Amino acid sequence: MNSSDRQAVLTIRSKQVISSFGYWLTLVGYDRRDRSALTNIYLLYIIIFLSAWILVVMFFLSDLLANTISPFLAYQGIAFAGLVPSIGTLLFVLWCLYLIYKATIRSPLIFSKEDAYLLCQTPADRRFITLTWFFSEWLSRVLFISLAASIFGFALLELDVTYGIRMLSFGHIAIAALKPLGIIIPIHLGLYAVAWIIGVYRLRGESMRIFFMRSIRVLALIIGGSFSVISIGSILTPSFFTPFQPWLEFLSFPLFSAFLEGSWWLGLSLSIGLMIIVLTVFWQISDKVNLSRAAQETHHFRAQQVAFRLGDFDRINEMNDHKRLGSSHLPSKIPSLSGAWMLTWKNIVQSLRSFTISRIWSWLAILFLMISMIIVGVLLENGSFLFPLIFFWTANISKKTTSRFRKDLGNWWLLHSLPLTPRRIILHDIVPPVSVTIFLTLFTMWISSSLGLSINPIIVISVPFVVAGISFSAIFDILRLSDSVLLMEGRPPDFGLVGLILSFICIGIPTSIYFVTNKFSILPLIGILATILVGGFLTISLLHLSERQFRRIG
Amino acid sequence: MNNPPLQVQEISYKYGSYQALQETSFQVNKGETVTITGSNGVGKTTLLKCLSGLLLPSTGSVLIDGFNLYQKECSAKRRLSYLPDYPRFYQELTTWEHIRFISHAHSVEHNFEKQAEILLSEFDLSDAKDMYPHTLSRGMRLKLGIILCLIRPFSVLLMDEPTSTLDPPGTTILCEKLAKLSTEGTAIIITTHDLSLASRLSGQTVHMERGHFELV
Q1: How is chain B split into domains, by residue range?
Q2: What is the ipTM of this complex?
Q3: Can you name the residues that pair with A222 across neighbouring β-strands?
Q4: Which of A29, A427, A436, A488 is the most buried (most CB within 10 A)?
Q5: This prediction's pTM
Q6: Contact B94/A343, CB-based, under 8 Å?
Q7: The architecture CATH gives domain B1-79+154-216
Q8: Residue A328: which of B90, B104, B131 has the nearest Cβ?
Q9: Are A404 and A317 in contact (CB under 8 A)?
């Protein structure tokens, strides 16, 4: 492989890394395309601010850790501090076994579909690509463990200072962080490379490796389970696990020497030795990796990663649904009627096929929020807690009752071609989830009143109007934000602030009627009638607005 | 009243300040086929989207059998069939269920299964009738889109590059179908880059240039 090929590989990878880094910069308002001096100054400011902020948070966490450890240390002495390297070793081993387990199933080299065409099919040096991907992935992963090790180093330093051993200086702080990092970083790199060795070995392609990989998976589970039992057991009942003690001490020696007493140089030598051996093996076997196979295994995962970063959860759900649905299905036996009722038929078939436990959870969330609102509102009479609960309840109902309609908007060509009025389309998509929500809400109220909590009839009678109002408010906002071009690409918008404000109006009006009837001792029947009239008017108006908005899409 | 199937009255379309479609009026009579050609970005897709009601034109109106597409949408849509260049489908419905859904939604119940089987067989999709759309190739998805357009009654057919990913047998079948529909009185508008397709279809060919037409 010549240097220009290497340069090309490095360019592709660095662009990917910079782009993922750019994602975080975008979150803090930095525009990478803007090359003005002001933007560069802003970038410098962000770097300085975030560095200082991270350092402050690290000191805060280390202080918290030191304060937590301090009483135990005073009570149990150094024996307690000795637990930390043992637990650290256990976590390291379990983490490495998890990575190995994953590597036996899916390639550790993650490629996008574009990589599959642009990179994986070129005759570029496999070893160079593998090592480039390995080190760039590792760098993003070592950051968290380095921060955690430094925080623990600072905590131990603070404990030393608390016990009056020495005065704190910049040198002490630097050593407190660098001492553990010197050992932990090579161990982390070595263990990370072990998992990649397994993954890369699998990608070299001989078919007999299926059995070998299965064996490694089983072995990883057995080792993980046994090591957890032995490690935790030796902490809780040391006498029972005495025969394993020398092994555990040997394994935890590097971490012991990193954080506590012990030969730091020996710990450093061991960790660097481990790293060198593993990296040598990795270098040796990384020459014949089947990159196309790696891309085939990981492009789906990569697409999900990108969708997650963009906050495109619809796309993630769609990809998961494709996976779950498989390739084919026998025709549905659910009887169908003609005309608009086919929408209901389609919705039933879709709901049955996309049914998952997580979709039940979102209904249960509405139920739990309703229960919480009744407890906080009726039992505790606490208005300040009630407001956030109402907010989440409203947002949940808006989301849940409009999800089918949004999906239909994502198939705008088919939906638009139906010879149905917007009103019928909206109602056929909305009525089932709205009915379920009304039922759940009334059911919760019935349970609450059975338990002796008194709920005003005006509140009960307003439930259908409030739920329908919230739903139509969200629909109106979705339609308001809809654009034909985006809908044709399958990208329907979600409801926004306008939808939420209209929803709060739908909640606020019956609540106001309730308060007015209570305050001025008006007959409850008048309050109920007023709620029905106003709620009905509001709901119909919102439906009418939604219809108009539907016709305006384009 | 004997209205032409498609009457276009002074429609134009603007994307922001960009005039994608110049103001234009025309009509397509019963049994007429109009093939629109032109390079990318001249407004072919925009025109068809306006004619199908997917885009609201900046000015003008479209009448389908005398029904205004933006005012009497149900009556107009019953008579209008449109195929986009990249059709999307419901991911949870199979090929067969899509056909069932569209035909029943258009109240085509009588003989629908026989018609669907014939179309599936003609477009070589019989083996894919229980498959989900995401497992179909682009060409197969286009064929499914064509079947969904043809399974229901209509008097105006709009197709946006219907042969872009079709195999040669699929193209031949489509041409035969279009010829038959034309003799039965359907007004057809097709956009394409494939000049050989334009020559295979009888009728007018118009060339689009920057949002306006020229008769070829």
Answers
A1: 1-79+154-216, 90-153
A2: 0.93
A3: none
A4: A488
A5: 0.76
A6: no
A7: 3-Layer(aba) Sandwich (3.40)
A8: B131
A9: no
